[in-house]
Design goal:
The protein has 13 helices and 18 strands. The chain has 430 residues and is α+β, with helices and mostly antiparallel strands. Helix 3 runs antiparallel to helix 4 and helix 5 crosses helix 12.
Amino acid sequence: MLDLKSIRSNAAKVQEAADQKGIQVSVQELLSWDDQRRALMRETESLREQRNLGSNRMGALLQAGEHAEAATLRESLKNLNEGLSSVEEKLEETVKNVQRLMLLIPNVPSPDSPIGQSDLDNVEVRCVGELPEWNFVPRNHMELGVLHDIIDMPRGVKVGGARSYYLKGAGLLLHRAVQQLALDMLLERGFTPMEVPLMVREEPLINTGHFPIGQEQTYAVNDADKWLVGTSEVPLVSYYADEVLDLQEPIKLAAVSNCFRSEVGSAGRDVRGLYRVHQFAKVEMVIICDPDEAKSEALLQEITSHAEELLSLLELPYRVMLVCTGDMSQKTYKQYDIETWMPSREAYGETHSSSNLLDFQARRSNIRCHDAEGRLVYCHTLNNTAVASPRILIPLLENHQREDGSIYIPPALRKYLGNREVLRCEGYIG
């Protein structure tokens, strides 16, 4: 969240950010409730002070034997306490309204973020790699999956319902190989690997900016009063909640985890294949650094380059997009999406996303550090997807297919696959 003082000083700018991000919230309503809160706090403090003075006065009267005057004062204090209780109830309700609206206030996008309404308005920063050309009709990833007996959607739907799947044999090995490649790459770059909780309480989801907006995308574990995370960003950031950190160097974390998303509102979109499924796996990066905008911007470029390096190792053509305001989440200050070429879609499809959130998550999660003057300040947080599978299998299978149906395996993956170079149609790697 943002600081209320900052919101008040930049009300028009914050409201503009909410409108651009499509968030239904009134900054003026928030400030009005905050005005009431502050007035009621002053009234509460005044009444409490009067009560304390009256209580002291009554004690003195009783000690002096002035019982009649004490009785009158007691009645007055009774009325004062009733009034105080009424004001405290109003204050409690007012605080709830301030908190409710504060959780809807968005991060203001960076000055260089494009203004737009959807991913169609994102701006291409760079395009890397040559698109494949064939002298045969290429197969899509599902046709290749069936040909090699490595993807089974019908049985996935039979067992798990819509948007469920099985990966078999070499399909699973490729799924695991891209994750291990990403993790090994991050280990070389100083990231600490983490195994994280996948069921979390509501508080971490609120504190990381995934709730209340976006709650409909999250699966609830009702009997346990918990939720299944859609990204390990949530438990990674929350690892340091309510702590004061020593940030002489940025903290770099990486997790390999399953992720779950309900995909509410995506009916009819990408219904065939592995592009939009309910369960998937990600290698996620999270960085926590001191609140220096130049430093967090440099780190954003750094983590974006890690994802680009992975795609280069996989020998896949891609493009980097600067995300527009309307395609951003509430919590994001600046974001890049990386889209990889998917021949069956005849288009680039999003496979990675990197974001700088400034101190938005840290304020909610109460993650602080000391600045150069020794003052406690809120940290900056960043996150990026190193790889997400099985979505990455779409371009991996489709771009590297050959006319006979076999699939070329990039050298970077071979050490995880028994040093084999080709996935052949017999359903084995050889």
